């Protein structure tokens, strides 16, 4: 039997907030797995290039848990919460 998939297929978005602004992130689910994650909107005071390497971590780990980025803790948090919200819609 194929393993129980955690998520329903589709594209889901979520918002994460921080004191420096908001981030919208999206995940793409295929066959119950995260195949893509990306920053859809970056409304933070700082460039989202600081956290551009986080979306691939979501895919490789199949989880919103990503490494903290020194100097971009707020943006990391906002991205994390955006992914958590997006994945909650995919359940």
Please summarize what this structure is.
The chain has 91 residues and is α+β, with helices and mostly antiparallel strands. The protein is built from two helices and three strands; from the N terminus they run βββαα.
What does this structure look like?
Helix content is 27%, strand content 34%. The protein contains two helices and three strands. Strands 1-2-3 form a three-stranded antiparallel sheet. The model has no long low-confidence stretch (mean pLDDT 94).
On the 0-100 scale, what is the average pLDDT?
Answer: 94
Largest sheet: 3 strands, antiparallel
- Form type: elongated
Structural class: alpha+beta
For the biggest β-sheet, the strand order reads 1-2-3
Features:
91 residues, 3-stranded antiparallel beta sheet, 2 helices, elongated
Write the layout of secondary structure elements.
Layout: E1 10-18, E2 21-30, E3 33-44, H1 54-61, H2 73-89
